[in-house]
């Protein structure tokens, strides 16, 4: 059959919040591992606000601790203790919210793979959802192909597959899924196989000849 290669995992990486590019930590075509920092947006004002919120949290925690001591000595009422507890919890939540906002200013690789080509430059302003770069996991790689319904009974999960590319490379793999329905227009069945692709020799989008043993 004729098959089409696609990445097991592939995504257009984008920023969650607006900002100015502070630093680009990758180069086009680079191999990266999960968690690698790829891009940083300017976050000076966000960090300054975080410092202010952390100071307020420290004060709120101190007030609550003092209130606990006073309630034990029967100096203040239960409602006053509840108020200081609520103030402390609100301060802690505000710090966590600001930390999450700062985290959005840093783009990290969600999984290991190969990066595409980028045209970004430091100082460039980005809006939320702006694509930064494409990330593709190339090993293993998937191949989609179809077979006639007449050979459906000859297919099975984990069945060996060989995919041959135009450049002569052959990849070994196995069937991982068979569509549980026949296309009424072509009377063909979709099949998915996973192939070992060391070094990312073949790329998503390529077509291959697929042989099922």
Q: What is the CA-atom radius of gyration, in angstroms?
A: 27 Å
Element-level helix/strand string: EEEEHHEEEEEEEE
Low-confidence stretches: none
Termini, distance in Å? 12 Å
- SS element count, helices: 2
Shape: elongated
Structural commentary:
This protein has 213 residues and is of the alpha+beta class. 26% of the residues lie in helices and 38% in strands. The chain has helices at 44-72, 78-103; strands spanning 2-14, 19-24, 31-32, 37-41, 106-108, 113-115, 125-126, 131-148, 160-164, 170-178, 188-195, 207-212. A hairpin with a 5-residue loop joins strand 9 and strand 10.
Keywords:
213 residues; alpha+beta; six-stranded antiparallel beta barrel; 2 helices; elongated
């Amino acid at each position: 059959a004729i098959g089409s290669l696609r990445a097991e995992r592939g995504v257009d990486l984008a920023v969650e919040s607006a900002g100015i590019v502070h630093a680009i930590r990758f180069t086009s075509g680079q191999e990266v591992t999960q968690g690698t920092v790829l891009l940083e947006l300017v976050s000076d004002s966000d960090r300054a606000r975080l410092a202010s919120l952390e100071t307020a949290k420290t004060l709120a925690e101190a007030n609550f601790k003092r209130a606990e001591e006073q309630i034990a000595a029967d100096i203040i009422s239960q409602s006053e203790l509840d108020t200081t507890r609520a103030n402390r919890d609100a301060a802690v939540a505000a710090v966590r919210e600001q930390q999450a906002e700062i985290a959005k200013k840093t783009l990290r690789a969600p999984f290991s793979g190969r990066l595409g080509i980028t045209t970004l430059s430091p100082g460039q302003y980005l809006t939320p959802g702006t694509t930064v770069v494409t990330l593709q996991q190339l090993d293993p790689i998937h191949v989609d192909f179809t077979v006639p319904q007449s050979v459906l009974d000859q297919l099975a999960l984990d069945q060996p597959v060989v995919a041959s590319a135009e450049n002569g490379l052959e990849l070994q793999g196995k069937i991982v899924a068979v569509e549980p329905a026949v296309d009424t227009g072509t009377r063909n069945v979709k099949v998915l196989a996973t192939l070992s692709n060391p070094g990312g020799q073949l790329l998503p989008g390529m077509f291959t000849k697929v042989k099922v043993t």
